[in-house]
Amino acid sequence: MNTSLLILFRIVHVFAGALWIGAAISYLFFFKPSIKAIGPAGSQFMRSLAERRKYPVFMITTSLLTVLAGGALYIYASGGFNLAWIRTGPGLGFTIGALAGVAAFFIGFFGIGRTSAQMGALSAQIGSSGGSPTPDQINVLHALGKKLSRAELVDFVMLFISMSTMATARYWPF
User: From the CB of residue 66, how many other CB atoms can be counted at a distance below 10 Å?
Assistant: First the structure.
């Protein structure tokens, strides 16, 4: 792989990764508590964030770019998955970071994305009915909310592990 392509992949990987974890931190620690605090208007905010601002598309795009560019860099750095390199300190650090990043991608896509979509669809159904939610709908929303919170926490932990191991991998073993 030529140097220009390596630099391009590295820029895409680092920039998209920074956007990905930055957006995740902003959502988890700032948006989400504020949405809960404002009550019913929070669902309107979330709908606007998803539909008008395309937040889910942004998250999928940044995470996918991060994983794809990182995958190309990993294949290059590892010499095509050479076990001798993977067993080195830096190889182990980058491998742990890569696995955590890929896990975060799938948790985000399947755990957060799908659960958020289910909550959004149910909220829209409740809103369009013009009445109050039924007890069953409230129970489903609470269950989905718990599932979403767990997925968001695990996703954040995976992103943190990925970012911190990749940032320090060159210096392994400590």
Answer: 26
Handedness of CA 62, 55, 42, 141 (dihedral sign): negative
- Residue 70, CB half-sphere, CA atoms under 13 Å: how many? 26
Q: What is the distance between the alpha carbons of residues 103 and 17, in angstroms, rounded to a whole number?
A: 14
d(CA 39, CA 45): 10
Calpha distance 107→117 (Å, rounded):
14
Q: What is the largest CA-CA distance in the chain?
A: 63
Range of the domain at 136: 3-171
91: phi then psi, degrees, rounded to nearest 5: -60, -40
> SS3 of 16, please?
helix
* Weakly modelled stretches of the chain, pLDDT under 50: none
pLDDT of residue 38: 93
Per-residue pLDDT, 42: 87
Buried b (16+ CB within 10 A) or exposed e, 26-50: ebbeebbeebeeeeeeebeebeebe
pLDDT at 120: 86
pTM to 2 decimal places: 0.91
Total tally of structural domains belonging to the chain: 1
